[in-house]
Amino acid sequence: MGTNAPEYGAPRTLWRKLAEHPPPGEGAVRRGWRSPVRGVRLTSVLGLVLLGTLPLVIVTGLLDYAAYGPQFRQAFPLDVAWLRLPPFDWPTRPSWLFRLTQGLHVGLGIVLIPVVLAKLWSVIPKLFTWPPARSVAQVLERVSLLLLVGGILFEIATGVLNIQYAYLFGFDFYTAHYFGAWVFIGAFVAHVVIKLPRAVAALRRSLPDPDLAPLRPGPVTLSRRGVLALVGGGSLLLALLTVGQSLDGPLRRTALLLPRGRNPGEGPNGFQVNRSFAAAGIQPALTGPAWRLTLTGGGRTVRFDRAALLAMPQHTARLPIACVEGWSTQQTWTGVRLADLAALAGVPAPASAHVVSLERTGLFRQATLQANQVADRDALLALRVNGADLSADHGYPARIIVPALPGVHCTKWVASIDFRTDD
């Protein structure tokens, strides 16, 4: 026992020495946090709200990544090592599945911003306590807290900038957001395991926390209920200013915080576009009378002009289209079933279909569709929308529309489709 005493005593000596030598200004910082509203009960309420909602943001974000078909190496980032999700075929039903998951991921993420900021405000004195830790366990807790705070602020900042089309990152958004999400997920799980018992106990009875109690309490200007009402009102306001982006109808015009689709234009083609014809840089001659759709598979190659495609049996379906930025809309599409085109190419039951656009640049100029997506009764090579020919911005002369498929994989300005018998 005697030989081990210094080893066990060393950590206690370290914490004591840290406590005896605070950094300059530490006391002034502590005295600056004067709000009497802060306390374990307030931060526990906010924490439990986030505990009930952040998992939904996490799950929908991971589902959206899976919707992009990582098994075909078309979900970004491409190489995620052991962070790769288990492969599975993204379903086509219900047809609004991606519209729901992406809308929840973006919309709920925005709505929770006031709650996250209030939570950080409620515990900020703890970030300046000295010593910063009093045990090895507390060191681990502080590290997880640092990753948690940094992770969620990073995810919020990059997510908001992305949906605002403000690409100010200097790095690839998809890669950074995906790996940042896993850093946050790990820290979130660790923090819940450490803090949940205390949060539940705090709601059952008043538990003091000297690190949250102000050294010099200021006058009461807002009650705890008032703080919660203010935070809830802020979240409600953000919901009203964003939810219209994911809904058709009058609420579309209330989506003041989101850049796309409040005034998409008039007529059958008057709805949102992510990438316009001009931005795609396609030569107009390529979509003119000389355009041909090339189908390959089964050892044959066949080509059709637009008139030949319009002469084929046409199918009409009302389907949503949803974008990674959070907006979505539902329109009525008419065209040739992909299953019928596969049969013409000599592959009646393809394992996948590789679609290539006339567009020559961009991450999403091509996409691979799963077998169930090709076979779906409403999966179309769309030629018309809402009873009119597609506009150039919406993919004329032909585009892909598949139920529950991410919008960027509903390839526009289709040049060719290769129906494959293996993945």
TrEMBL record:
- InterPro entries (UniProt xref): Mopterin_OxRdtase_euk (IPR008335), OxRdtase_Mopterin-bd_dom (IPR000572), OxRdtase_Mopterin-bd_sf (IPR036374)
Q: Which domain of life is it from?
A: Bacteria
User: Carries keyword Transmembrane?
Assistant: yes
TM spans (from-to) = 40-63, 104-124, 145-167, 173-194, 226-244
Report the residue ranges that make up the Oxidoreductase molybdopterin-binding domain in this protein: 288-422
**Keyword Nucleus appears in the UniProt entry:** no
The protein's matches in Gene3D superfamilies, at most eight in alphabetical order, are given as: Oxidoreductase, molybdopterin-binding domain
What keyword terms does UniProt attach to this protein?
Membrane, Transmembrane, Transmembrane helix
Q: Which Pfam families match?
A: Oxidored_molyb
What name does this protein carry?
Answer: Oxidoreductase molybdopterin-binding domain-containing protein
